[in-house]
Design a protein that fits this description.
The complex is a heterodimer. Chain A is of the alpha/beta class. Chain A has a single domain (2-255), classed as P-loop containing nucleotide triphosphate hydrolases (Rossmann fold, 3-Layer(aba) Sandwich). Chain A is 39% helix and 24% strand. Chain A has a six-stranded mixed beta sheet, with helices on both faces. In chain A, strands 2-1-4-5 form a four-stranded antiparallel beta sheet, covered by helices on one side. In chain A, strand 1 and strand 2 form a beta hairpin. In chain A, helix 3 packs across helix 5 (119-138) and helix 5 (119-138) crosses helix 6 (154-167). By secondary structure, chain B is mainly α. Chain B folds into three domains: 2-278, ABC transporter involved in vitamin B12 uptake, BtuC (Orthogonal Bundle); 356-542, no CATH class; 545-603, no CATH class. Helices cover 72% and strands 3% of the residues of chain B. Chain B contains 26 helices and six strands. Chain B has helices spanning 2-32, 39-56, 61-88, 93-115, 140-162, 164-174, 176-181, 186-208, 219-233, 238-258, 264-278, 309-329, 332-357, 365-383, 387-409, 414-434, 436-439, 461-483, 486-496, 498-503, 508-534, 544-557, 564-578, 586-600, 604-615, 626-630; strands at 131-133, 136-138, 445-446, 451-453, 456-458, 536-537. In chain B, the strands form three sheets. In chain B, strands 1-2 form a two-stranded antiparallel sheet. The chains are: A alpha/beta, B mainly alpha. Chains A and B meet through helix 2, helix 3, helix 4 and helix 6 of A and helix 18, helix 19, helix 20 and helix 26 of B.
Chain lengths: 256, 631
């Protein structure tokens, strides 16, 4: 079964075709990388899948279910989580609280139970805090659990955002350039996290420029250029594809 | 027909004053993105200074006018340089709005100290005799008003469109960062626009002074009218501001003539609500689309205040014990002030959930207090229903109003949301005055019984004190539980980033409504208790000034702390009681305190204090040493 099916997706801004008849599928359990030169329409594609932008044509199916006109929060409710290109941790909350915020849709006890300090609600909070801590530990941030998330370096914020999305219990995780702005240590932590996610059986669609990260971990690569899908295959196939080389480096004649 | 023409001309005259004020608001809004609620203060400052110079010192009118305008402009420049401009870079927009509300209160307080609370009237500039034109009788002052308005509008237009300073101002409005990079001194220009708006306000206030009576707090009326006019016309368009002002003036005069003068305000407010819902960007301005996936606000945020562990528990118990023994040691006057402070604290708690945690501005909390107060009072006096039932009924009606209001305001943000809630407060205000048969009108409702439950009456200040203290304790504990778990995290996520919150599956609409409902319910409870405490309720006890006072309490104590509001409520309620001779300075102190807290301790007294305490031990790890620590 496919976790995500994108079919003939089209979107224009004014006269610019930002996304032009794009079709591809993300098989369940895969780690699919979405690559392409700057301005290829990768982030736009994420915004279309999560209905932040209204699409002009085409369809998106999530585990066979048409996403239609669902609101972003309804889509998240189905188990499709995303991160943003610029880390969007919540200011005014600590690192730990930020990660815990991700579990929102998984909470069983309502606001009233929480206000009455019912034992069940408090126990649920404690369990959640432990899970969030474990995740922070995995990315090496547990020492900063009680520090304002916005005061941490950008790399740490991006890792927190991934942890947050992960705690939401996604069936499919969309990551928008998680390694951008990360130093080598942090990138290593991220790739450890990605492997852990994949081993946990969660499907990942990742936009990434860091090629070694992509080639090491992706099972499938989709290449976008100028809003159109130009190639799909394994990392090895993609590296050898002349169209991909042309998109990145220009026509062969010019290179020579 | 002649009468109709007379009404239209009256409306245009009134409207031209609104247009001038709206123009000032629009000018500052274009440059800074902030609605300057202190605008009306400059009108009243100009008019009162004119009165003093003319009546007390006998200056000739032209000289007095020039001096009054100059003095007001200097005051405006001073306030701008000392507080508005330096705060711009440090405070989020919603706090800036509150800061200007604080400036407004401070100006009102200053006027109260200097001129007292009696109304003033300035003689018309060119005699009382009306001018007859084409068979229509016009007050001669009308020509001065129209002349001043046209002069101001034309010169502002010319300055913006034709001079270098004007172009630099527009550049600031479009993109402050780019303007700064191009060598435009944004701070100086912001100050210029703030001074300019003081000058415009003074001119408007002075021109209209002879045809209305005014006192220290008439400025609110000007600000409200200008705010409404600018919203109807479109906030960032100067032409829209002028058109909106004229439109509002004519509409109010027509409503007063053909409906009822009692409901003229209600009509204009209803007009505004319709505009906000139907075309939020204004009737006369092109609507602009914003990208949704880009963060709107600058990255300015409050620090985090958290109470954790044994220290907080001990501190809380000590404060509680102190509050419990207070009635034994204070005198009667202080006792009743304590009761009032605690009652207001309950309404402030609600505000904290909505503003401090969810980030939604509410300038109309007194509206919910009025609904709770009048519902309980009317049911108790008119129908003899038990007070508890009245209190519950008040909560029900408040929740219903909150539901409607939050559905209406769902799409609104920032200044527009502030305006919509302010409008709600003013609407309730004008209804409590207008529906005299039900509410007793301006003179109020008397003979409200004491609060009682199952036959036990809380008819002494002591008993009521313990009742309200217990209620406040229960509410604080409950809200603390809510704010420390999933519910509170969802609200705080919405406060700063609605889009990211929605991407986590948080239903932004539902949570905003819940926060609004909590805020309304607590406001309503406070209103009911307030009425039962005083045995009397009049519109100004739960008027818009009260909304601003409660916001001051919240900010001074500390937003997002729940208990901080208690410090603010005690401070603002008790200080004038303890220092009786200084009571006249209360309003000014309230405004100044609000402004100073915003500028120098944006976390409030409690937040700043807690942070100072938590800094004493060496503290946890600091960011920046991330990699070393984790290796």
């Amino acid at each position: 079964m496919n976790a995500l099916e994108v079919e003939h997706l089209t979107k224009s801004f004014g006269g610019v075709r930002a996304t032009n008849d794009v079709s591809f599928a993300v098989p369940e359990g895969s780690l699919t990388a979405l690559i392409g030169p700057n301005g290829a329409g990768k982030t736009t594609l994420f915004n279309l899948v999560t209905n932040l932008f209204r699409r002009d044509g085409g369809a998106v199916r999530f585990f066979g279910q048409d996403l239609g006109d669902r609101t972003p929060s309804e889509i998240a409710e189905l188990g499709l989580m995303r991160t943003f290109q610029t880390a969007r941790v919540f200011p005014g909350m600590t690192a730990l609280e930020n990660v815990m915020a991700g579990a929102h849709r998984k909470l069983k006890r309502g606001a009233l139970a929480q206000m009455l300090w019912l034992p069940g609600a408090r126990a649920e909070e404690r369990r959640l805090a432990r899970r969030a801590e474990a995740l922070l530990d995995l990315v090496g941030l547990s020492a900063f659990r009680d520090i304002a998330a916005t005061s941490l370096p950008m790399g740490a914020q991006k890792l927190i955002e991934v942890c947050r999305a992960l705690l939401a219990g996604p069936r499919l995780l969309l990551l928008d350039e998680p390694a951008a702005g990360l130093n080598d240590t942090e990138t290593a932590e991220l790739s450890r996290l990605l492997r852990a996610i994949r081993d946990g059986g969660i499907t990942i669609l990742i936009v990434e420029h860091n090629m070694s990260l992509v080639m090491d971990s992706a099972s499938q690569v989709v290449v976008l250029d100028l809003g159109a899908c130009i190639a799909t295959g394994t990392p090895r196939q993609i590296l050898a594809d002349p169209r991909v080389i042309e998109a990145y480096l220009g026509p062969a004649a010019e290179v020579a | 027909m002649e009468q109709f023409a007379q009404i239209i001309i009256g409306g245009l005259l009134q409207g031209s004053v609104f247009a001038v004020i709206a123009l000032g608001l629009s000018l500052v809004f274009r440059v800074t993105g902030i609605i300057n609620l202190a605008q009306g203060g400059f009108c009243i400052l100009g008019a009162l200074t004119l009165y003093t110079l003319e009546a007390d010192y006998g200056w000739p009118v032209p000289l007095a006018v020039l001096a009054a305008v100059a003095i007001t402009t200097l005051v405006g420049l001073g306030l701008g340089a000392a507080s508005f401009v330096p705060s711009l870079q440090r405070l989020p927009n919603s706090s800036m709005l509150m800061l200007t509300a604080g400036l407004m209160t401070a100006i009102e307080g200053l006027a109260l100290v200097v001129w007292g609370s009696q109304p003033y009237a300035v003689p018309p500039f060119s005699g009382e005799r009306p001018i007859v034109l084409l068979g229509l009788r016009l007050p001669s002052q009308g020509l001065w008003i129209a002349g001043a308005a046209v002069l101001i509008i034309l010169s502002v237009w010319y300055a913006l469109a034709r001079t270098a300073v004007g172009k630099a101002l527009l550049a600031c409005a479009e993109n402050p960062m780019a303007a700064r990079l191009m060598g435009v001194d944004v701070r100086r220009l912001t100050l210029v626009s703030f001074g300019l708006t003081a000058l415009i306000g003074a001119l408007g206030g002075i021109a209209v002074a002879p045809i209305m009576s005014f006192q220290f707090d008439t400025g609110r009326f000007f600000t409200n009218a200008g705010f409404i006019a600018v919203a109807i016309g479109g906030m960032s368009s100067l032409g829209g501001a002028v058109a909106g002002g004229l439109f509002l003036g004519v509409a109010e005069q027509l409503a007063a003539a053909y409906v009822s003068s009692l409901f003229a305000t209600a009509v204009s407010l209803a007009l505004l609500l319709v505009t906000l819902v139907w075309r939020p960007s204004g009737l006369f301005a092109p609507s602009r689309q914003r990208r949704q996936d880009v963060r709107e606000e600058l990255r300015v945020h409050r620090a985090i205040v958290r109470f954790k562990g044994r220290g907080a528990l001990v501190g809380g118990l000590v404060v509680l014990a102190l509050l419990a023994v207070l009635p034994a040691i204070v005198d009667g006057g202080t006792m009743s002030s304590l009761v009032i402070a605690l009652i207001l604290f309950i309404a402030v708690l609600g505000l904290d959930v909505l503003m401090g945690y969810t980030g939604q501005v509410n300038l109309g909390q007194s509206g919910f207090m009025a609904i709770g107060g009048y519902t309980a009072a009317i049911l108790a006096t008119g129908y003899g229903l038990p007070p508890l039932l009245g209190l519950v009924a008040g909560i029900g009606i408040s929740l219903a109003c909150a539901l409607v209001l939050s559905m209406v305001t769902l799409r609104l943000r920032g200044a527009y949301l502030a305006l919509a809630t302010l409008t709600f407060g003013l609407l309730v205000d004008s209804l409590t005055v207008g529906l005299g048969d039900l509410t007793g009108g301006p003179s109020g409702l008397v003979g409200i019984p004491a609060f009682s439950v199952a036959g036990f009456a809380f008819d002494t200040p002591q008993s009521l004190y313990y009742l309200v203290l217990g209620l406040a304790l229960v509410l604080v504990l409950g809200l603390m539980g809510g704010m420390r778990s999933g519910f509170g995290r969802a609200l705080q996520a919405i406060r700063t980033d609605q889009m990211a919150a929605a991407a986590l599956g948080i239903n932004v609409v539902r949570y905003k409504m819940a926060a609004f409902g909590i805020c309304a319910a607590l406001g309503s409870i406070a209103g009911s208790l307030y009425a039962f405490d005083f045995h009397f309720l009049a519109p100004e006890m739960v008027g818009t000034a009260r909304s601003f006072e409660m916001i001051a309490m919240l900010i001074i104590g500390g937003e997002g702390t729940l208990v901080g509001g208690l410090i603010g409520a005690l401070l603002i309620t008790l200080l004038p009681t303890i220092f009786q001779p200084l009571a006249a300075y209360k309003i000014m102190a309230e405004g100044l305190l609000l402004v100073l807290v915003f500028q120098f301790m944006p976390d409030g007294l409690l937040g700043t204090g807690m942070r100072a305490l938590s800094r004493l031990p060496a503290g946890g790890p600091r960011p920046g040493r991330l990699t070393e620590q984790t290796r």
